[in-house]
Amino acid sequence: MASSTSPRPAHPLRLGLMTLIGRAYPRLIAGNREPDWLFYEATLPLLRVIAFVLVYRALGAPPEYTGFVILGGAMMAFWANVLWSMAGQLHWERQSGNLELYLMAPPSLLWILAGMAFGGMLTTLTRAIFITLLGTVIFGVTYQITSVPLLAAVFLLTLIALYGLGSMLASLYLFYNREVWAVQEMIQEPVALVTGMYFPVRTLGGLAGSLASLIPMTLGLDAMRQLTLGGQWIPLLSVPVEIALLAILAVGFVAGAAWSLRVIERLAKIEGRLSLKWQ
Amino acid sequence: MCWYHHTGHGGQGKRDKYLESNDTPAVRTIDLRREYKTRGGSSIRGQKAGKNVVALDGVTLDIARGELFGLLGRNGAGKTTLIKILTTLLAPTSGQAFIDGMDVTREVTPVRQRIAMVSGGEQSGYGILTVREQLWMFAQFYGVSSRVAHQRIDVLLAAVGMSDQANQKVYALSTGMRQRMNLCRALVSDPEILFLDEPTVGLDVEASRLVRDYVRRWMSENPRRTVLLTTHYMFEADELCDRVAVINHGQLVAQGTTNDLKRSLQEHVRFQLELAEWAPAFVEQLRLEDGVMDAETRQREGRTELRLALLREEMIVPTIATLNNAGGRVLTLKRIEPTLEEAFIRLVGDEAEAGSEEVSHGE
């Protein structure tokens, strides 16, 4: 391979986007390469959705609660993806030796995380669509979509904020990297509870609901339910307010992720935490 | 010949001298020092938590462009720490390090555009990807267009004998295949400076040879390409490296060509002669000769082997003449070169014995 060795660096934005696509690739392509995802990541979560729907129906809950559960089940797929494939990912990458190579590469680590997020979002979208379609067909749910643009905006902002949170957690997990698995297990279900994954979050009360709003899923789900399901249930906040708060969360978490990644990289260089296996 | 014994901290004078130099070496370190502070529960080299451990101590080193430079040292000597600093993964506690004239702590991005690293036993990448996809992915991180990346991948895989594995999943590769792929991964961005951190550790003879052969070939294709190799395998350093340095307890204790290193530590020039007949009297006679420091014979497979230690190489001529005059008949004569391993052990001392076993039986 006797080519020129004079480096001609790509424009930082171009390099960043190439990195994003490169790192998204394993998730986009390889993530669907082995079809067992259909069982583990779509069919199994659907069982939980079915269980909740059956309980609600047995209790005589209003029909829109079926829609709550299906939307919650679909969004749960994103939360699981953020938790296991974003927040914990840099930790796994460190164990496999990839993290060193990512740090040694010219683009910022944030582009690598953006690639993970992008790939994760699209891959999880197929799971979420599968859960929504199947749940809708099985239980005959009807939707009353009041605004498609608003729904798209809420969904997009929720994902950006959610994956921004995942990116921020990723660097924090690197810093306190010894018990990632246990922490993941510890927060997965409580978060599913407080974000109102399977019921209107207002049920928890205003204060608890407001605190839970720090997790983007809470506001996102509440707004999406308002925009797609009718009924007499009480939302946490109005859709415009929830969109504004989601936008703030999205910017905050992405900025927080960029900042924490810079901090962790600096500390890593000083303390040797990321590159030495005994640390 | 660039050969010296390290004398500790270089100080400001040495730093100025290096900075004033007109040549821009591929790699330059000036009085580089790295300390680690052990944290709770950690223990480095037996030090308790909260203690400072010196991993590098005043390392000053130049590696010219086009050079294949070996860094030898036992486990924990500081080799990997030096590589981590040069690859921008670690900050030095003090001192400076430059890649292609750029400070590794201040000009991080341009440094990263020029370098690549392969470590021994590396498990990087994603098992579910094919070899080609894996290499393409890493090429993206360096801004290599897909068209160029695929061209390079074809060339690289052919060069390491993996063309048939291009579409094989990474998880199905053997250790040797995986390391060949790692080498391709490092080279797909066409770096100027390649860091090889014990690249053949754990590989079988054939895979090791293939890696070594390709590294040498890669170097020969472009005079600007530079390699810094760390290895425990002395024969590997001997075979590959233009120059080597020996690092011990974080300090460079010697550097030069492998021949410089071997000979500089050899007190006497050694020869081995095969004689036609057994004659113990020869030995007594030779020991009286000027410049003959030692002489001994032994019977081996029906022949007499004479080993001589001479003060200088040219003294072999009068010594053979003395043997002939005494009626001895020389069948063969060869100079015994010291091995790099012997030189290494002499430099790093007895503590290397455990490591030297690894060196001797490493492959």
Distance between the termini of chain A: 38 Å
The number of distinct β-strands of chain B equals 14
Figure out the total of helices of chain A: 11
Task: Report the portion of residues of chain B in β strands.
Answer: 25-35%
Class from secondary-structure proportions of chain A: mainly alpha
What is the 3D form of chain A?
Answer: globular
Number of beta strands of chain A = 0
**What's the helix count of chain B?**
13
Could you say how many structural domains of chain A there are in total? 1
Oligomer: heterodimer
The CA-CA distance between the termini of chain B, in Å, is: 30 Å
Overall mean pLDDT of chain B stands at 84
Largest sheet of chain A: none
Please characterize this protein's 3D structure.
The complex is a heterodimer of chains A (279) and B (363). Chain A is mainly alpha-helical and 279 residues long. Chain A contains eleven helices and no strands. The relative contact order of chain A is 0.13. In chain B, the strands form three sheets. Chain B has a six-stranded mixed β-sheet with strand order 6-7-8-3-9-10, with helices on both faces. A four-stranded antiparallel β-sheet of chain B has the order 2-1-4-5, sandwiched between helices. In chain B, helix 4 (131-140) crosses helix 5 (146-159), helix 6 (175-187) packs parallel to helix 7 and helix 9 crosses helix 12. Chain B has 363 residues and is an alpha/beta fold. Chain B is built from 13 helices and 14 strands. Chain B has helices at 11-20, 79-86, 108-114, 131-140, 146-159, 175-187, 205-220, 234-240, 258-264, 280-287, 316-325, 340-348, 353-360; strands spanning 27-37, 52-63, 68-72, 94-99, 102-103, 115-119, 193-197, 226-231, 243-248, 251-256, 269-275, 292-300, 303-310, 330-336. The two termini of chain B are 30 Å apart. The interface between A and B is large, with 43 and 50 residues.
